[in-house]
Amino acid sequence: MSENKLKAVIFDLDGVIVFTDKFHYQAWKKMADEIGVYFDEEINNRLRGVGRMESLDIILERYEGEPLSEEYKKILAAKKNDMYRELLYGMGPDDVTAEVRETLAELRNRGYKLSIGSSSKNAKLILRQVRLMDAFDAISDGTNISKSKPDPEVFIKAAEYLDVPCDNCLVVEDASAGIDAAKAGHMYAAGIGDAMNYSLTDYPLTSFKDLLDICK
Ligand code: B16
Ligand code: MG
Fold first, then answer.
1. Which ligand has the shortest distance to the CA of 175?
2. Angstrom distance (rounded) from CA 32 to CA 194
3. Does the beta carbon of 14 sit less than 6 angstroms from any atom of ligand 1?
4. CA gap 7, 3 in Å, rounded
5. What is the pTM of this model?
6. For residue range 8-56, what is the model confidence (pLDDT) as tens digits?
7. 117 lines ligand 1 (CB under 6 A)
8. pLDDT at residue 2 tops 80
9. Is the minimum distance from the CB of 183 to ligand 1 under 6 angstroms?
């Protein structure tokens, strides 16, 4: 493809801009211990990019008791979220690298529109904590979608908010579910971390600043 087709960049949040995996792990682990279900870091890795209730269903695959009602599952998810938010309040500007801040600023300087495209309902809280609200022209997150990744809804909404056609957008993701979502939305996909070697990734990124070689 010709790179000058790109007009906007849509960033996944967790695993791309910030790393809150460890907080998700701590909060889910506490909840899992309370109901006596086995949970480890390997299972936690499967939750990356996956919505909250879908994450709970993955954790409950190991649950051996009587089936849980939807109402009780919502209580468990809310408890986990309360513990997770407590941990998020401990985040600050130092939780975002200078490389990320400088790359975002330079992309804007080059005329690209920037959006968040995150499954998280806590995205705005995280962005406020790390002082990055002003770095983006739009935020599409778990509060404005009804289907989570790999459905493309969160990215399509981001493109709408930016008023840029989907095929002029580049999505930056760390999870294969997010790359699938980008491709389903007819967008280009850059993969960082685990998503770097995923078969559908168009642009593998060894480092966040590699975006500046793609978005010239
Ligand atoms: P919340 P992303 C995702 O964020 C996380 O990777 C995933 O682990 C989490 O379950 C999901 O958000 C929902 O988060 O419980 O805060 O609404 O990677 O899409 O930015
Ligand atoms: Mg992610």
1. 2
2. 25
3. yes
4. 9
5. 0.94
6. 999 999 999 999 999 999 999 999 999 999 999 999 988 988 889 999 9
7. no
8. no
9. no
Tell me, in angstroms, the distance from the centre of ligand 2 to residue 67's CA. Answer: 30
Instruction: Check whether residue 193 and residue 210 sit in a common domain.
Output: yes
pLDDT the model gives residue 4: 56
120 and 172 housed in the same domain: yes
Long-range contacts of 74-78 (CB under 8 A, 24+ apart): 76/31, 76/35, 77/52, 77/53
pLDDT at 48: 87
148 Cβ inside 6 Å of ligand 1? no
What's the per-residue H, E or C state across 144-178?
A: CCCCCCCCCHHHHHHHHHHCCCHHHEEEEECCHHH
Distance CA 40, CA 38 (A): 7
Q: Last residue of some domain: 88, 115, 147?
A: 88
Q: Are residues 105 and 209 in the same domain?
A: yes
DSSP code string of 101-116 = HHHHHHHHHTT-EEEE
User: What end-to-end distance do the CA atoms of the chain give, in Å?
Assistant: 14
Percent of the chain with pLDDT over 70: 98
* Domain housing 107: 3-18+96-214
Residues 30 and 56 in one domain: yes
- Ligand 1 pocket test, candidate residues 89, 100, 120, 129, most atoms within 8 A of CB: 120
Whether 80 and 161 share a structural domain: no
